[in-house]
Specification:
By secondary structure, this protein is of the alpha+beta class. The protein is built from nine helices and six strands, in the order H-E-H-E-H-H-E-H-E-E-E-H-H-H-H. The protein binds cobalamin and iron/sulfur cluster (2 copies).
């Protein structure tokens, strides 16, 4: 077992956010989604995320496989890390069918803060990150520090993310209007079809902004889900 080499392996594939929780500290969030959790068998839970474009480069090199290539690759990274570098059994909680709220889990990490944009922010990487996998492991790893890091929105006076949104979906923290955003994004020729102008305007971690192909890929998939959702619920308009 060599967790250090495992971290290097994940890092070389663009996984630059890594957090270990004691599984017991997440029980209230895990039980409603997955039922019984044996914390003696699985003492540690690992949350991994990518920030910036490095993950995209690694994904392109790995190849686009399966219905959801990002999930496919993320699962591959998580399982390789557990088996090859920790010599540990594991249970993948995300990606999976379990209705896990990754944001509720990440809220406990100390480095994940709410923003007017709805998505969360990291003090260094800004909003340019996403959670890629959450898994339980039989190996016991030291829990990561959960002390709160600096919350960038608190010192952001101008809050350019608010004025940049053409749909008035972005306001005070906690008031993000997902429906207004979605309805704006699904309009034909919407400037937000394949990007979020407000997210781009946020000055924090701008050097980690996704490369155009990566940005288009993620926003197209998000938009496609929204189109499907509103097509299925059009009778409620
Ligand atoms: C389903 C889903 C969606 C659906 C929500 C439909 C609905 N309201 O029912 C749709 C397709 C709309 C969506 C959109 C987006 N999503 Co989304 N989504 C998820 C997903 C897969 C499941 C959420 C869920 O059902 N959880 C279970 C319930 C019990 O937990 P919950 O946290 O209360 O879930 C609710 C909220 O998460 C909300 N929601 C989901 N996404 C978003 C995004 C924003 C900005 C807000 C305010 C709310 C919201 O909808 C859920 C159901 O009500 C999560 C991954 C996960 N497993 O957590 C990602 C996730 C929440 N989404 C994420 C992102 C980035 C987005 C998009 C930006 C993607 C994109 N590029 O288009 C957009 C946001 C809109 C925008 N600004 O453009 C990220 C957020 C990362 C972060 N840093 O905070 C997550 C965590 C995925 C990830 N791998 O990191 N998403
Ligand atoms: S522009 Fe300012 S308020 Fe908006 S998300 Fe970025 S740091 Fe937070
Ligand atoms: S995608 Fe467009 S409509 Fe949605 S929050 Fe971003 S700027 Fe506003």
């Amino acid at each position: 077992m060599d967790p250090r080499l495992g971290r290097e392996y994940l890092g070389s594939n663009g996984i630059n956010l890594f957090h270990v929780f004691d599984t017991t500290s997440l029980l209230d969030l895990l039980r409603p989604a997955i039922g019984h959790v044996d914390t003696d068998e699985f003492p540690s839970a690992v949350l991994i995320a990518n920030a910036g474009a490095e993950f995209w480069r690694a994904l392109e090199e790995f190849g686009m496989h399966g219905f959801d290539p990002v999930d496919y690759f993320s699962s591959h990274l998580a399982t390789t890390y557990a088996i090859k570098y920790l010599d540990s059994d594991y249970e993948l909680l995300y990606p999976s069918e379990y209705p896990i709220s990754l944001r509720a889990i990440a809220d406990r990490s100390g480095w994940c803060h709410p923003t007017p944009l709805g998505i969360t922010i990291h003090h260094h990487f800004g909003t340019w990150y996403a959670f890629r996998a959450l898994f339980l492991i039989k190996a016991r790893l030291p829990a990561s520090d959960c002390s709160p890091t600096n919350h960038p929105c608190e010192s952001c006076i101008d809050k350019p993310c608010i004025s940049a949104c053409h749909a008035n979906a972005v306001g005070e923290i906690g008031s993000f209007n997902l429906e207004a955003c979605a309805r704006f994004r699904i309009q034909e020729s919407s400037p937000c079809s394949f990007r979020c102008i407000s997210r781009i305007r946020c000055p924090v971690g701008s050097e980690y902004q996704y490369v155009p192909k990566q940005m288009k890929y993620h926003y197209k998939r998000g938009r496609d889900s929204m189109v499907r959702f509103y097509a299925e619920h059009s009778d409620q308009d």
